[in-house]
Amino acid sequence: MKRLFRSAVIASLVFALAGCYGVEGVISIGEDSGTGATVTIDMAQGVDKSLFDGDADRARAYVSERFGDEWGKSSLPAGDIFAIMVLSQTLATPATFSDEFGNTIKVTRGTAEQRPDGRPEYTVSMSLELVEPVENTEFVGVVFFLEYPIDWQLRVISDGGATIVSDSPGREYLRFATPGEYKPLIVLFPPWEPPPAEEAAEPQQIAEPEEEIQGEEPPAAQPEDSGSGGLIDNRDLEAAVAEAETTEEEELAVEGALAEAVTEITRDGGMVEVEGSRFPARSLAGIIPAGATVEVLGIGESYLFVQEVDEPASNVGLWIVIGVLGLLLIAAVMTIVITRNRRKSSSVSVA
Hints:
CATH 2.40.50.140; seven-stranded mixed β-sheet; 3 helices; 20 strands; 3 domains
């Protein structure tokens, strides 16, 4: 598998550093081998030395500790403000890159068995939480460049709060401008040709009878209905086309809608029902049980991207507690009133 040229990266910081930070990293996806591709992430990361009393070594160690041993690590000369660490890692799909705080970048390949037409696809999903900088420091910004073969097609399913624009052929620019949570979702499609259709069997020739069959002439064939198109009735064909167009419109209209999980839904697939219509679906986070309520976040080539919706907690228990407290308050008030009345009665009797 051939890997694409890696772009130069600048001094930066990513993932869970409370200080002056930013990032410009590169995510490179290689050519599809038929079973997967290599994915490389390079990040040159810098830390504000003033957070560590100007000690560049301590600043670099801080960054290094936030990434596991699977990351390659090296240092660059420190500048006036930043101490710089370079982090890199190369994996084959399915590839998951992460830090020690649960921030992840995943690149997975859809197989022929997972798609009705057998077309391969690569899903790039990111889940990042960029924290607020500490006092007297600044959030510089975070940028990733996504590089992939120039003959691939790209579709942004969800920007997840990021700014995503095409930088050049085979290169996308992902900008995370402020602290917060980001969950972009991008799908890439390598070049693909459907498998050749099986050749139709040659029609068998019917041997002509050797002798003319005696008897009555067969009845003349009745003219076919003008609406018929031969072996396939044109009316049925037109109805099928209209139904397909209606289905496509329905699929495009379900984005953002709430649906019910008809079956268990995983990243590989499942089924949801939206207003009486059923669609194939994939989960963006974990396994969704059958019967759960989901939200449609995006539309793929032949399926929906969904996420389980947290059901609001029931307020029944809260109202029961309030009711009990109310009854206790009423009982306390009545007890006080009765006690006072008794005391008054006793005073009058003594007098």
